[in-house]
Amino acid sequence: MIIPEPLQIAIDELSxxxxxxxxxxxxxxxxxxxxxxxxxxxxVSAIMGLKEKLRECSICSNITYKEVCDICSSPKRExxxxxxxxxxxxxxxxxxxxxxxxxxxxLGGVLSPLSGVNPENLKVRDLLERVKDNDVHEVIxxxxxxxxxxxxxxxxxxxxxxxxxxxxxxxxxxxxxGDLEFSDDxxxxxxxxxxxxx
Amino acid sequence: MIIPEPLQIAIDELSxxxxxxxxxxxxxxxxxxxxxxxxxxxxVSAIMGLKEKLRECSICSNITYKEVCDICSSPKRExxxxxxxxxxxxxxxxxxxxxxxxxxxxLGGVLSPLSGVNPENLKVRDLLERVKDNDVHEVIxxxxxxxxxxxxxxxxxxxxxxxxxxxxxxxxxxxxxGDLEFSDDxxxxxxxxxxxxx
Lengths: 198, 198
Hints:
The first copy, chain A, is α/β, with parallel strands linked by helices. Chain A has helices at about 5-15, 20-35, 35-55, 70-75, 90-95, 125-135, 145-160, 185-195, and strands spanning about 55, 65, 80-85, 100-105, 140, 165-170. In chain A, strands 4-3-5-6 form a four-stranded parallel beta sheet.
């Protein structure tokens, strides 16, 4: 074995990241090896800081320092609208758009029976209780536009059917700055079906 | 700012890796956040192990545990042939081919005046001394087939001109399993120029 053991261990650990294969992991490990101890320590303490300082908001499961996140505890947000997302990273993306001012609910995934993700693996019951216990009048479903996202949306729609709460989903259509000529058929089809009046 | 500080710090640190942008770094940081403490500790100790346990071989600059690496200290290797490479990762690739049984010399880069890499930034003087002080009769240049690699090879060729040491370089041609039809002109041209007799 030509690769020394500590290097091999680091390569194996780094290749556990999603989307990082053995070759990329080797490149990353060799990069770290070239850096001085200060820089490596900074990376290591940043990684440990993640686990030590951050937790899930007890209401919406957003990533936060505190028991309840800044969004859930803000009096400026509309507490009667909940946007359901797959992951906390979706919250960051939606917040950047500055168009939504309600609360969030992180489901922690989407339904995918083939990968063994069923409703009991997601924060579905929490969402139902949250909507029932609070004066929520709209639930916006903001999943990725794919099969799993669609399946999860349909499941939640059925679940909320008898609650009388308004359920909406974010629009599908041409992305801003997109090009009709180069858009795929499904997107163009959706854009026509969801056309709005001027 | 919607992204909590410890997460932002981790994203900033992870995006210092070569080829890892802000978006990938965010994905990696969120992945770590989902892992349990054991797994994160394993990654962290693997990273620290890299820096604490490994060093450069004092002869060839290969990555090793010891003062002198396994290759340099092996009596089974031909000590009269030195293969010069850009980086220690090139040694791993060459060793996997199992075709070379001499010693190595890691230059620590290739000449690139535009990026400020000059001969004094590389282990050129060490190589010259090593060749002079030992009974070396062949130096094989195994750089990547690009402009910087070629420049470095020509520079070393000139440097060793008066030493009487045989200087060779690894062959250019069609890669094994490659396809003539889909090879680029430069590769086909090189393959013709370097044709060998059966």
